Structures are given as C-alpha cells and as structure tokens.
Amino acid sequence: MSRTHLNIVVIGNAGSGKSTIIGCLVSKLEGQYDGLAQLVQENAHPEKYGTAYDYAKAINEYASRENEDPDAITPWNMETPKYDISLYEIPDLDSFHDNVSSGIIPADGAILVLSASSGEGLEAGENDQTIQFAKLANELGISQIVLAISKMDTTRWSEDRFNEYLKETCHLLKRKAQYNIRAVAGVPICATYGDNMLEESPNMAWYKGWTKEARGGVLKGKPLLDAIDGVEPPVRRRN
Ligand SMILES: Nc1nc2c(ncn2[C@@H]2O[C@H](COP(=O)(O)OP(=O)(O)OP(=O)(O)O)[C@@H](O)[C@H]2O)c(=O)[nH]1
Ligand SMILES: [Mg+2]
Fold first, then answer.
1. Cβ distance 89 to 98 under 8 Å?
2. How far apart are CA 90 and CA 13, in angstroms?
3. DSSP result, the chain
4. Which residues of the chain have pLDDT under 50?
5. For the segment 36-50, what is each residue's pLDDT rounded down to a tens digit?
6. Of the bound ligands, which one is closest to the alpha carbon of residue 150?
7. By the 8 A CB rule, do 153 and 120 touch?
8. Whole-number Å distance between alpha carbons of 42 and 54
9. Cα of 20 to ligand 2 centre, how many Å?
10. Ligand 2 centroid to 14 CA: how many Å?
11. Please, are residues 11 and 90 in contact by the beta-carbon 8 Å criterion?
C-alpha cells in the first residue's frame, strides 16, 4: 500500500530554531542524504546536558555541498511511522506568501517554532514575527498547526515557562490569527539535544503531552514526531 505524502512548512521567527529542528528530524529519520550523518557528527560537541548537535550547520553545509541554490526553498524528506513527509523551511513572510499561494509549496500543515529562550520569542516584542507567520498560515488555508516551543534547555527545562508560553501563544493564535486552538498540538522541545523530538524526554518528565481535536476525534501524544503524525491529510487526496 502506498504511503501518504504530506508537505509541512516550518515557520517562525528568524533564529527560532527551524533549521535545527529539520536537521534533527531528517538526520534521525531517513537515510537518503548520503554524508549527512557524518556532518552531524563533525558538528557535535559535549555540552551541559550531553552531546549538543549543531544540526542547523550540518544541513546548511550539506545543502551547499550539494550545490543547491541557497535561496531556493528545497524540501527535506523524511519517513515517519505514518507518512512520507517533505519539510520546507520558510525564511520570511514574503516567501511564505509567494510559495504557498502560488502552489509551489502545497502546504498541508505547519510547524510553528517559538523560542523559549530569554530575550527571544515572546520576550522579543515587536521583533518577534511568530503570530504574523501564524496569521498568514491561516490566510493561506493551513488549518493544522503544531506549536514547537524550542530551546527548552536554555530555560533549564522549565515547566512554568512552557505553560506560560503555551497559554500566551494559544491566546494570540486564537485572537490575532483566528485559529481553533483546540486543534493545536503544543510540544516543548530541544532539538540540539533531541529532547521530545522522536521520544519523550526525561529532562521534561513533567510534560503530560498534547491533546487536540481532529476529524477522527481526539488525538493525544507526546514528542514532536507524534504531533507531526497527528497532522491529517487533506480530504481531497486519495493516496
Ligand atoms: N541551546 C539551544 N540552542 C538552539 C536550539 N535550537 C537552535 N538553537 C540555536 O539557535 C540558533 C538559531 O537556530 P537555527 O536552527 O539556525 O534557527 P532558524 O530558525 O533556522 O534561523 P534562521 O534560518 O536564521 O531564521 C543557532 O545558534 C542554534 O544553534 C536548542 O534547542 N537549544
Ligand atoms: Mg534556518
């Protein structure tokens, strides 16, 4: 039986951690990028909470080695337990609008990345474009959002910080971006160390998981991978 393919855009403020998330997922979930595993190892170093992997550097180096056009938004492909997925890192609001509205990127869902690190994300004030990305996502017809609250290591894995950011962001998603927040899955992650990416993290044992409303009923899960597999394919498709 053929597997369903989904296109997922990774959106969020500059520096929120989009490339690191993509690099972490792609290098752990598939084998088609020859030499990527080695680049990941070359960009690893011991840090406070274990081995820190600079996945962003690894995938950026990989892309430039493959002579890809640095300005093109290329898909990063991976296989999850449920889907074949292409992830697209969206660099800014204009390219988000142009690529999705023209159909170049037919986005089925979005991972909205928000840094929990102090001075970034909600604390960046007007410099933070998280909600503008969400608003545009809704206008572009992307109804399914996974909210990844990133860089949790920099908060010392703070439950309070996560709850505060989740509550505030959901409030903004509802009020300013007109999202049905009962359909949003919120996950605290740290892609650098891999926490709550493929498996639940012992560093955030307090995390009870996400719950969301979907067509087939209520879905629940913990790591980001589950939340990605919780994105539902569009009804119009039959593959
Ligand atoms: N401590 C920590 N740093 C992180 C984490 N994720 C990303 N970073 C760092 O944050 C910076 C930005 O990460 P990127 O993944 O490049 O973010 P981005 O959203 O792709 O950035 P742009 O493409 O420039 O918009 C880099 O220095 C990363 O190493 C994390 O989970 N923990
Ligand atoms: Mg990036």
1. no
2. 10
3. -PPEEEEEEEEESTTSSHHHHHHHHHHHH---STTHHHHHHHTEEEETTEEEE-HHHHHHHHHHHTT--TTS---EEEE-SSEEEEEEE--SHHHHHHHHHTTSS--SEEEEEEE-STTSGGGGGGG--HHHHHHHHHHTT---EEEEEE-GGGGTS-HHHHHHHHHHHHHHHHHTT---GGG-EEEE-BTTTTBTTSS--GGGTT---EEEEETTEEEEESSHHHHHHTSPPPTT---
4. none
5. 999 999 999 999 999
6. 1
7. no
8. 9
9. 7
10. 7
11. yes
Residues 6 or more apart from 68 whose CB is under 8 A from it? 74
Architecture of domain 4-230: 3-Layer(aba) Sandwich (3.40)
Number of C-beta neighbours around residue 108 at 10 A: 23
- For ligand 1, mutation pick of 10, 13, 19 (most atoms within 8 Å of CB): 19
State the Cα angle at 146 between 144 and 149, rounded to 5°.
155
| Ligand with the closest atom to the CA of 191 | 1
Residue at token pair 């300013």:
176
Q: 9 alpha carbon to ligand 2 midpoint, in Å?
A: 12
Predicted confidence (pLDDT) per residue in 6-43, tens digit:
999 999 999 999 999 999 999 999 768 999 999 999 99
Q: What is the number of the ligand 1 atom nearest to the C-alpha of 12?
A: 19
List all residues 6 or more positions away from 162 whose beta carbon is below 8 Å from its beta carbon: 116, 149, 152, 155, 188, 204, 207
pTM: 0.96
CB 109 within 8 Å of CB 8: yes
| Residue at 119: amino acid letter | G
